[in-house]
Amino acid sequence: MHRTIEVSGLVGGLLVALSASGGAQQHERSPVRGEHQLVVVARDTAGTPVALAEVRITAGGGWVRAAQTGGDGRSVFSAVPAGEARIQIRRLGFLPSAKVLMIASSSERDSSSAQFVLQSAAAELTGIEVMDSAPDRDPALIGFYARRGSNLFGHYLDRTDLDATHAQRPSEALRGVPGLVIQPSRRVGNTVRFRNCRPTVWLDGVRLPDSELDEVSSFQDISAIEIYKSLAGLPQQFVDRSNPCGGILVWSRNH
After folding, report:
1. What class does CATH assign to 33-121?
2. Sign of CA pseudo-dihedral 15, 19, 21, 25
């Protein structure tokens, strides 16, 4: 069974009053003296808005707020207390910036803006001095040093490396190369073999078929040597299709 309860008297009057006024939550907040709205705007030197810049504001009484700029380069802060406000802004790729703004007291809400022009960080990069001995190298060995730095299939000896071996013949300077066999030759000096296979010798880019290393150059005349024990890794221009045994590239001082 349903009952109808009639509300009257003081309680009923109160409910009616609240209903007419839209509820207690609808009461407007009175303006607070010194409340301020601050708009921070970030642009680069070309005038383009800088988005996603980190903005931090510190004011009196421990008031601290942080936010990011939007696509228009703006970030809005409300209820900034009167007095000195320190604004800091930073963005990856730009130098950090900061400024101090005085927020004036006011009996009404007020608004002001702080404009930032961010400088590219690249403008402040210090120069880098590169120390290298490349200018003193033989220009004809540019390819040699390029392969030495990138091709792991070869073994490389420049003049400094050759002198360190104290060898008398070019073949003797190669004794440290794994898998290489050096034996006395019936003609001149020694023979050089990889797995009982004779590599093709190239002198200053010219193929010398059926030649031995010690036959084509003397030790003192060599500027650099490259050794490739198979066709793998051998520069394309030095591949001898008739010989799968790799190659020895000799660069002379007088080429």
Report:
1. mainly beta
2. positive
